[in-house]
Specification:
The protein has helices at 15-23, 49-60; strands at 2-10, 28-33, 40-46, 66-73. Strands 2-3-1-4 form a four-stranded antiparallel sheet. It is globular and about 35 Å long. The chain is 28% helix and 39% strand. The chain is of the alpha+beta class. It starts with a strand and ends with a strand. It has one domain: 2-Layer Sandwich (Alpha-Beta Plaits). It contains two helices and four strands, in the order βαββαβ.
């Protein structure tokens, strides 16, 4: 099992509106709007690293209002 954190930068005023779509993705464990350099932190579990990348590239990045993402794979 691969555990990952996805940092999402949203266009101004868009984070709250995209949160339900992110939370509905199959591999998403939790998602939170946060203050800081990014607007949403997404935690997900997937069978393989490829599945993490697929969730990000096909599920999160295409959402309207997503400006950028960063993926961090947990090493423990």
């Amino acid at each position: 099992m691969v555990h990952a954190f996805i940092m999402v930068e949203a266009d101004a005023g868009r984070a709250e509106g995209m949160l339900p779509a992110i939370e509905s993705l199959e591999r998403v464990v939790t998602a939170h709007i946060v203050a800081g350099d990014y607007d949403v932190v997404v935690e997900l579990d997937a069978p393989e690293v490829y599945d993490v990348l697929e969730t990000v590239s096909s599920g999160i990045q295409p959402l309207e209002g997503v400006a950028d993402t960063r993926t961090y794979i947990a090493m423990d």
